[in-house]
Design a protein that fits this description.
single chain, 387 residues, TIM Barrel, eight-stranded parallel beta sheet, two-stranded antiparallel sheet, 12 strands, 11% strand
Length: 387
């Protein structure tokens, strides 16, 4: 068993073990991938202040996200096709998150269904909803999320239309993968992945097939998904969905102060500053650059979380010090899942927690709820001076 000391260790193993189309799906952005790259490189620009001769005993990374106790301010982000990275991947990730004490968020575009996750976990999880044109399907998804006891609805706002991701188009991304000569050649080298996939019945979108009208198999699913993302989603519809859900609502995909104000106005419990991991609007600013202005815009009216670019515990600490109340990891746990299954997700969480705890202490703090911008050295004009 290799010694894992960083998320990059997991990423190297993941690249060897996962089929190319699913590795590329996770490790890519839209168009030129500028925003995808800057989500991580902008974190590197922020430096930390070392402090010494401070009592570092009895440290705690425990806090709350939307009123729920968490072992550290990190949730597993919704990631589509997770069950293609490793057989029953969403179940494995949800179990690892529960054991560690952090939230798991299931994607609408998951391989394992809402009911699958509920069957294999004991605590409530969060559900991420894409708004589709089929209102009956959306209503059914919300009802199913209620039925299995989801404690929060994460409504994604930045995927009304799909950003172009060149690698996915060139690879012919699908679940399960289409067996072309190129795909077969690649899968032949991923025997561990293939053996696990042969042992599961979950190989397509479990929340959709058998639930959406006219979607009973893979051929009908492809045409349905291409036309279903709803470009008409607006703030009035968001407000109606909030009322329809009736529970805690997190709005994901906020990257502008004016949109953050609208989210606060309709009564969101939290917003996630996110550019969809650089997978939608290429050329948009990174989430960490936009975080301060969005926090200033909403003040204490709504809890502000951050997604996109988190690859380490230091990134978590920097986001928290800049005012976020929680963060989300997507690729970081997918690397672990594709590398080592459930154990890999646990390893990703362990690595991030260790980095967070150690760095917090070396910056002179022993409670995550007390860190602030005083521990950071932020470049002048970090947020940009734009005309």
């Amino acid at each position: 068993m290799p010694v894992i000391t960083s998320i990059d260790d997991l990423k190297r193993i993941y690249k060897r073990r996962a089929p190319k189309m699913f590795y590329d799906y996770a490790e890519s952005g839209s168009w030129t991938e500028q925003t995808f790259r800057e989500n991580t490189s902008d974190f590197d620009q922020i430096r930390l202040r070392q402090r010494v001769a401070v009592d570092m005993q009895d440290r705690s990374t425990a806090t709350q996200m939307i009123g729920e106790d968490v072992a550290m301010p990190v949730a597993l982000a919704p990631v589509g096709l997770t069950g293609m990275q490793s057989a029953d991947g969403e179940i494995k990730a949800a179990r690892a998150a529960e054991k560690f004490g952090v939230p798991f968020t299931l994607s609408t575009m998951s391989i394992c269904s809402l009911e699958d996750i509920a069957e294999h976990t004991t605590k409530p999880f969060w559900f991420q909803l894409y708004v589709m044109r089929d209102a009956d399907f959306v209503a059914d998804m919300i009802a199913r999320a209620k039925d299995v006891g989801c404690s929060a609805l994460v409504l994604t706002l930045d995927l009304q239309i799909l950003g172009q991701r060149h690698k996915d188009l060139k690879n012919g991304l699908s679940a399960p993968p289409k067996l072309t000569p190129k795909t077969i050649a690649n899968l032949a080298t991923k025997w561990r992945w293939g053996l696990e996939m042969l042992q599961t019945k979950r190989r397509t979108f479990g929340n959709i097939v058998g639930h959406a009208k006219s979607v009973e198999n893979m051929s009908s699913l492809s045409s349905w998904t291409e036309e279903q993302f709803d470009p008409r989603l607006d703030w009035d519809k968001v407000a109606r969905l909030k009322e329809q859900w009736g529970g805690k609502l997190i709005l994901k995909g906020i990257l502008d102060a004016e949109d953050a104000k609208m989210a606060a106005k309709i009564g969101a419990d939290a917003i996630i500053v996110s550019n969809h991991g650089g997978r939608q609007l290429d050329g948009a600013l990174s989430s960490i650059r936009m975080l301060p202005s969005i926090i200033d815009a909403v003040g204490p009216d709504v809890e502000v979380h951050l997604d996109s670019g988190i690859r380490s515990g230091q990134d978590v600490l920097k986001a928290m010090a800049m005012g976020a109340k929680g963060t989300y990891i997507g690729r970081a746990y997918i690397y672990g899942l594709g590398a080592m299954g459930e154990h890999g997700v646990s390893e990703a969480l362990r690595v991030i927690h260790t980095e967070l705890d150690t760095t917090m202490a070396l910056c002179g703090h022993k409670n995550i709820n007390q860190v602030d911008r005083d521990i950071l050295l932020v470049p002048k004009d970090f947020e940009g001076r734009w005309a």
